[in-house]
Amino acid sequence: MDNMADRVNSSSRSGRKSGNEPSGDARRDRWRKHRIARRAEFVDAALRALDEHGPDMGMEHVAAAAGVTKPVLYRHFDDKADLYLALGHRGTEILFQRLLPAINAELAPVPRIRMALDAFFSVIEQYPNLYRLLARKSFADRPVDADVVAEDKQLIATALTALLGDYMRMLNMDSGAAEPWAHGIVGMVQSTGEWWLDKRTMSRDSVVEYLTQIIWAAIDGLTRQHGVALDPHSPLDADKVVPLKKATDHGQHEQTGEPS
């Protein structure tokens, strides 16, 4: 997307009206809220189906996990791509719920880096098949246009650019390096995460610690080149925060019939 804020703040990837906006018709509003709740239940069922069947799951597996028939699913999702996008919203929400408190924790630099990395790796460890499904950009052998993983990567890199830039200006350093540094860090973490999910040759704690050491060594090296020595175990004078909002999924069909 051209504007990543649109990605985060949109109430639905499919462009439908948010269920949080009353229509003025009480009956319609009740059905809309019901459909939002049912849609969320089906996304939960899809996560359970992913755990059982892996990223090759089909709509029939989701329907079975939800205890409904496929036609009932299609009353709440336009097609497979729509369910894929709803899963993407849920994955982004889960990631940001853990990542934002870690990034914005008022900690010393190294513990803050470690906590943020652990938040990311805890999500992909708990939801490996969700990450694999979103990363391969297809659902039930049907390619989809959206690239949820790439969008989240861009969103996080943009926020990290602002965070690093603030700190570099605070230390009287050229903040021009903030953007390539941010994209480099995010790309390294994502690539390492994919390798770790595939190989699992070490524990989560170990991979997080190794990445923490690499990232801190790069930061420490750059700041020392500019005559700034930071204590990795002491909080900085000013803790900057990332004003990043998480995506939510409120998509629903505009129907007013009996709930299903």
UniProtKB/TrEMBL annotation:
The GO terms describing molecular function are: DNA-binding transcription factor activity; transcription cis-regulatory region binding
Q: Which Gene3D superfamilies match?
A: Tetracycline Repressor, domain 2
Report the domain of life of the source organism. Bacteria
Identify the InterPro entries for this entry: Homeodomain-like_sf (IPR009057), HTH-type_TetR-like_transc_reg (IPR050109), HTH_TetR (IPR001647), Tet_transcr_reg_TetR-rel_C_sf (IPR036271), TetR_C_32 (IPR045823)
Q: Which SUPFAM superfamilies does the entry link to?
A: Homeodomain-like, Tetracyclin repressor-like, C-terminal domain
Pfam families attached here?
Answer: TetR_C_32, TetR_N
Q: DNA binding happens at which residues? A: 58-77
Domain HTH tetR-type: where?
36-95
Q: Keywords of this protein's UniProt record, alphabetized? A: DNA-binding
UniProt xrefs under PANTHER family: HTH-TYPE TRANSCRIPTIONAL REGULATOR RUTR (PTHR30055), TRANSCRIPTIONAL REGULATORY PROTEIN (PROBABLY ASNC-FAMILY)-RELATED (PTHR30055:SF160)
**UniProt protein name:** TetR family transcriptional regulator
